[in-house]
Amino acid sequence: MSECVDDNEKFSTVISDISSKIPAEGMTLEDLLDITGGRGLFMSCMILTAPFLFPVDIPGSSIPFGSTIFLISNGIIFKRPVLIPKRVMGHKISKKDMQSILNGISRVLKPLEKRLLAPRFCSLTNGRRMEVINGVAVAFGGVLLVTPILAPLGDFFPAYGILFVSLGNLENDGYLVLLGYSALIGTAIYYILIFTVTILVIVNIISYLGHL
Predict the structure, then answer these.
(1) Residue 30: is it exposed, middle or buried by C-beta count within 10 angstroms (0-12/13-18/19+)?
(2) Which end of the chain has the lower number of beta carbons within 10 A, N or C?
């Protein structure tokens, strides 16, 4: 069994450190990646889920945020610099908005850290192979976020899947990673059911109109 390592640095502490480093003029995504350092890619994916962690999210944000998560996760999978267009990397987020994003993440993380997070089942978090697998899971979550389907809480579920996989990988918690996998697979099934029902309704309407 893989050995679990606890570096005693909780993510909420890292969040506070990032928040303290936000300059008055705000920061770009490139600045954020620089601040988060070696653990920055999974961490950045987590931060980008913030607008979707509550049932009401920011309208129209799923495509740009989901696309960025997908591109960042490709950096994890292929272990190469993140290939994000300069226009996106240079997009500035105001200090107020960035602090709101970080505060939203903190509200979700603090209960998890107190009641759930622990180094365990680390075969799902240790080593390059699991880093790639978890990167693929996060990329899949990014694809789900940008999928153009009208479904209640359609962005809520994949966002938590991305959050759990990323946080579990960072905190060596394989159980949380499994919970993230379940959320992503459940979302995919949910989308398929919504799509199937929609198609059946359309077919029945067309059939009904054809008999008039």
Answers:
(1) middle
(2) C
Q: Which three-class secondary structure state does DSSP give residue 110? A: helix
Name which of 107, 127, 96 is nearest 2 in CA terms: 127
Beta-bridge partner residues of 29: none
Percentage helix, strand, coil for the chain under 3-state DSSP, each rounded to 5: 70, 5, 25
Per-residue pLDDT of the chain (212 residues; tens, 9 = 90+): 455 655 556 777 777 777 777 888 888 877 777 776 556 789 889 888 888 887 655 556 678 888 889 999 998 998 887 777 777 777 777 888 888 778 878 888 888 888 888 889 999 999 999 999 999 999 999 999 988 777 777 788 999 999 999 999 988 999 999 999 999 999 999 999 998 998 998 898 888 787 76
What's the burial of 55, exposed, middle or buried (CB within 10 Å: 0-12/13-18/19+)?
A: exposed
Whole-model pTM?
0.83
